[in-house]
């Protein structure tokens, strides 16, 4: 009896110690990311419970998603969730191998594993040693790997000497470096759909594959991830820390997208560091071709940089002026591709890529979840188009045509000057938000994306032989669909409403105690707090008291001074 009590007591102690270590682990990750991301006026860092989503109001439409029982069971196991609970909640017939469910949408921004675990493949046998590596690596290391290969020191360089074992001794330089970003392509997407990406699965054997790559910043958002890949900087320096910023005035929640100035025009100065492409282009007297393509401007700009609006630099006694680079994105109102003409160019080949015409031309070839009657219908369903095989195929084809027009046809593929080309295959992100990365729709888009990456690779092999480098990675992962994880959703509307309860009734719809909030960072209106004698501690307790479906939403709220220097 005494022996059994002793064993039980030890088990309790071990389990308790494990839970303490586990909790310390997640807090350390969050605080490190917060330190690397805090803005000058950030006052609080918000951490929700796992699987909870703090975002804008849900999309207008509920989406019907389709699932495989076996895949869902595997996903649930990975997240310590119960198949029996889901089966009962969704009232599923246990015999059905495939089933459907109406879902709302999911998002990403936290420092939890499902948002931060990403793959990185680096191909270039002349410069990179093949192998699977366990070294920790972040998106910010990617430009420094390029800098090492090109012998080029740039502003945001990071020490990559710990990766020396990965580099080959090669004096020659690649003719082109191509960076492919699979948006929302965290490791959870690949684990959910084994067999859906044969090219990338085999690519591990031809590349330096980093299996412990991770998003190291807050927030795990498109704009931030692409800025990290494009510049090598962290948000504390670049000032790009979220896709959008929320504020409150006159009873309304306002949001300002990244790179959008006060007059809703482009403001590239918001990114306060140069991109690798900005500096490399000027260093080589504007001779390199720079291409950055994504249907979302916040991604294309984050990789490409400032184009013609990059600050002038001096080389010796000469001043070198920047030129327009090929940085472009979709204009959904016109179902076409466009750019910000004051800084960038669009390739002529975009004229062939009207979205509705492309849809009509490929409609017979593609059997997918998207249909549109006419251009107006396509505009109304634009997010569903962007989350389909049509978008994946368009992105790949346009990118290859652009390289042909701007580099191959102009004979710059053999001029000894390394060109830089970035492309984001973003259909995986759109389908993940709308249908869930666990869905059959996401699997179908992943298959199409994998095929496009293979076609890009073969295009490079055909035109460059072995004189190129190709990197494939992701900007972030994503949370499971709340309907699967039993996660909660909190809108910014409810967040502001809850905090404003601290104000007198007459003031609650006029202003807010929050100057701005993203998803993880928040700045307070200190003047308003002083006027009504509301302390920071009272605001923190109010945030922690917010409940959704009788459950506390936020796990932790840290003051700025509680975030130690935990830099990498």
Structure description:
Helix 8 packs parallel to helix 11 (297-304). Strands 5, 6, 8, 9, 13, 16, 17, 18, 19 and 20 form a ten-stranded mixed beta sheet that branches. Strands 22-23-1-26 form a four-stranded antiparallel beta sheet, covered by helices on one side. With 568 residues, the protein is of the alpha/beta class. The relative contact order is 0.19. The radius of gyration is 24 Å and the shape is globular. It contains 21 helices and 26 strands. Helices cover 37% and strands 19% of the residues. It comes from Leptospira montravelensis. This is Type I phosphodiesterase/nucleotide pyrophosphatase. It holds the Pfam family Phosphodiest.
Helix content: 25-40%
Largest sheet descriptor = 10 strands, mixed
- Structural class, by secondary structure, is alpha/beta
Content of β-strand: 15-25%
Low-confidence stretches: 1-23
* Separate helix tally: 21
Overall mean pLDDT score?
90
Euclidean distance between termini CA atoms: 50 Å
Tell me the overall shape.
globular
What is the gyration radius calculated from CA atoms? 24 Å
The total of beta strands comes to: 26
């Amino acid at each position: 009896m005494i022996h059994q009590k002793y064993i039980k007591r030890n088990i309790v102690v071990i389990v308790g110690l494990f839970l303490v270590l586990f909790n310390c682990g997640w807090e350390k990750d969050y605080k490190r990311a917060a330190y690397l991301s805090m803005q000058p006026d950030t006052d609080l860092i918000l951490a929700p419970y796992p699987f909870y989503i703090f975002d804008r109001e849900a999309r207008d439409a509920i989406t019907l998603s389709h699932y495989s029982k076996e895949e869902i069971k595997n996903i649930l196991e990975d997240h310590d969730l119960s198949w029996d609970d889901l089966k009962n909640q969704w009232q599923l017939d246990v015999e059905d191998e495939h089933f459907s469910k109406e879902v709302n949408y999911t998002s990403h921004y936290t420092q939890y594993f499902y948002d931060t675990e990403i793959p990185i493949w680096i191909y270039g046998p002349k410069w990179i040693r093949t192998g699977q590596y366990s070294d920790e690596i972040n998106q910010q290391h990617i430009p420094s790997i390029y800098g090492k290969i090109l012998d080029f020191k740039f502003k945001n360089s990071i020490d990559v000497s710990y990766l020396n074992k990965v580099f080959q001794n090669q004096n020659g330089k690649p003719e082109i470096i191509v960076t492919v970003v699979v948006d929302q392509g965290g490791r959870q997407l690949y684990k959910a759909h084994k067999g859906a990406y044969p090219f990338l699965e085999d690519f591990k054997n031809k590349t330096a594959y980093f299996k412990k790559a991770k998003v190291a910043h807050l927030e795990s958002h498109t704009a931030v991830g692409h800025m990290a890949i494009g510049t090598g900087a962290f948000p504390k320096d670049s000032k790009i820390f979220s896709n959008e910023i929320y504020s409150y005035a006159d009873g309304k929640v306002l949001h300002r997208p990244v790179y959008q100035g006060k007059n809703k025009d482009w403001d590239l100065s918001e990114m306060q560091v140069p991109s690798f492409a900005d500096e490399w282009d000027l260093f080589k007297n504007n001779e390199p071709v720079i291409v950055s393509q994504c249907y979302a401007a916040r991604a294309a700009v984050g990789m490409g940089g400032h184009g013609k609006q990059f600050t002038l630099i001096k080389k010796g006694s000469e001043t070198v002026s920047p030129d327009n680079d090929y940085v472009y994105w979709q204009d959904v109102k016109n179902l076409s591709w466009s750019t910000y003409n004051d800084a960038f160019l669009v390739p002529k080949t975009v004229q062939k890529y009207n979205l509705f015409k492309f849809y009509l031309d490929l409609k017979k070839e593609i059997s997918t979840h998207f249909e549109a009657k006419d251009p107006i219908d396509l505009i109304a369903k634009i997010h569903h188009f962007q989350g389909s095989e049509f978008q994946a195929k368009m992105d790949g084809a346009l990118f290859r045509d652009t390289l042909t027009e701007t580099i191959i046809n102009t004979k710059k593929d053999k001029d000894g000057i390394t060109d830089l080309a970035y492309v984001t295959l973003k259909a995986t992100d759109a389908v993940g938000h709308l249908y869930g990365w666990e869905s059959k729709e996401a699997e179908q888009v992943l298959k199409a994306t994998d095929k496009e990456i293979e076609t890009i690779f073969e295009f490079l092999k055909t035109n460059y032989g072995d004189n190129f480098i190709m990197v494939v990675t992701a900007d972030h992962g994503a949370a499971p669909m709340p309907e699967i994880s039993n996660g909660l959703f909190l809108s910014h509307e409810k967040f502001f409403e809850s905090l404003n309860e601290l104000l007198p009734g007459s003031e609650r719809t006029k202003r807010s105690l929050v100057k701005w909030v993203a998803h993880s960072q928040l700045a307070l209106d200190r003047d308003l707090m002083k006027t009504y004698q509301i302390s920071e501690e009272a605001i923190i307790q109010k945030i922690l008291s917010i409940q959704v479906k009788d459950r506390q939403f936020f796990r932790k709220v840290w003051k700025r001074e509680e975030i130690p220097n935990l830099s990498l």
